[in-house]
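Notes for week 9. Today we move from apo structures to complexes. The key idea is that a small molecule is not decoration. When we ask for a structure prediction with flavin-adenine dinucleotide present, the ligand SMILES becomes part of the input, just like the chain. The input block below holds both the sequence and the ligand string. Read it once before you look at the output, and try to guess where the molecule might sit.
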Amino acid sequence: MQRESMLRRTRERREPWDIAIIGGGATGVGVAVDAASRGFDVILVEAHDFGKGTSSRSTKLVHGGVRYLEQGNIPLVMSALKERGLLRQNAPHLVHDLAFVVPNYSWWEAPFYGIGLKLYDLLAGKYGFGASKLLTREETLERLPALEPEELRGGVVYYDGQFDDARLLIHLAMTAADQGATLLNYCPATGLLLGEDGYISGLTVRDSETGEELRIPARIVVNATGVFTDSVRRMADPAADQLVVTSQGIHLVFDHSFLKSETALMVPRTSDGRVLFVIPWHGHTVAGTTDTPVDAPSLEPRALDEEIDFILETAARYLTRPPRREDVLAVYVGLRPLVKGEGKTSTLSRDHVIHVDSSGLLTITGGKWTTYRHMAEDCVDHAITLGRLRDEPCRTRALHIHGYIDALDEPLHEDEPLAIYGADADAIRAIAAAEPALAAHLHPDLPYIGAEIVWAAREEMARTVEDALARRTRALFLNAGAAAAMAEPAARLLARELGRDDAWVTAQISEFRALARQYTVEAD
Ligand SMILES: Cc1cc2nc3c(=O)[nH]c(=O)nc-3n(C[C@H](O)[C@H](O)[C@H](O)COP(=O)(O)OP(=O)(O)OC[C@H]3O[C@@H](n4cnc5c(N)ncnc54)[C@H](O)[C@@H]3O)c2cc1C
């Protein structure tokens, strides 16, 4: 993917695009993959970087959602379990199985969760990831040696999937590009074009790097802007009612030694009635999440002190070594686009919604990362009807995602350097081989090497230090202090690749360090 050639294609296009998509998160990029693989002419514009919004800030689970089972939302769970299976099949380099243990401290928990998780297995059917089973106290502690042993009776183990959300997003963007789609980051939609018939006939965007304005005529415009959904709808109709409410969820990241295991801990009912996960991820421990209503969406939401304390306190009840504020290597915050309804945000609909405004703007929102493919299929089916496009069938059920490696007979070893790039790993190794300085780690606490930054600039449309350290690698999300220290070498590598000067390097370093401070937690 190269931004300059994407821009050129956009400028040169005279014909209307079949489908223009606003928003480069899981939802929008999923729609781009679906529509392009059906043979449509597709353009996607993202205001910031691909995945800057919620889609890089998830709990990293490809899951049916045990909690939705408890809420009785069987269709959502079944659909998500099926999508979980399809995603592992189409992106084995990015999705792997993860065992979760629900520890039991009361007599009733083993039968209660044991039966519930058997139902979960059953609903997965042929898409199952492994059978759940009851564990003795010893087996539970064997799997989770860091678990609080006092009054522990046993546990239940079940299986779900885990992924790297931003990496999947970039590989989906590359899949869309491989299928012929045009994708632009740093190009916010600034307005919607209305035809003489009153229906939307395209959009305008601005290239934030140069200020250039571009007109994009399109038969159908899809609004996939997550928590920003209503602001885009109001570009066409300033009186549009509110469709989406926002709630935020935070995660704290610690050293691996807090969990000391490749099995995750699942706390099914926290003091506020939610689920808390403590999971191993990229050699670290991630704990989350919360559910706090938010008035207005923002691109960089902040964690509240009470959210941080809540996760620390809940984790401390279950771990032998209670994590403290000074142990937090990074905190990240994501905003859920929830379809408006009655009740607490944790019970609002996690199903996706497709909404058509009187202007013909097609909005898709809600849902989960896990169900992005199904959401995209549904959205493009609607786009075909609404835009009277030719009736092409969906092709994504068996479409390999960029980086797919055939005959992956070994399970993904997270600690194997570059495994997550799948088929692209060899090209990154070749960059490092050609210039051995690029094989060196950019920071001793993280596995990332210079060649990954060069690759990100050359092939993955990384434009800034933040793109390279937050979403092409996950340095910022794993260890904000280490990421801040990587800013300088990363900026110099990007400047060399993108032809930027020293002033750009200095500005990038200071911008990124300011951002990294927001991902840290002040010690007591
Ligand atoms: C805390 C948390 C944990 C989660 N964990 C999981 C999980 O483990 N598993 C799971 O399956 N799901 C999970 N989810 C849900 C999942 O992350 C979301 O459903 C999904 O990421 C939403 O993607 P999206 O594309 O709709 O929104 P976003 O990723 O927010 O994308 C919207 C994009 O639109 C762009 N945009 C906005 N305005 C404009 C404009 N004018 N022009 C161009 N672009 C614009 C934004 O910059 C943004 O990048 C979690 C959600 C949260 C909040």
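The first strand starts at residue 17 and ends at 22.
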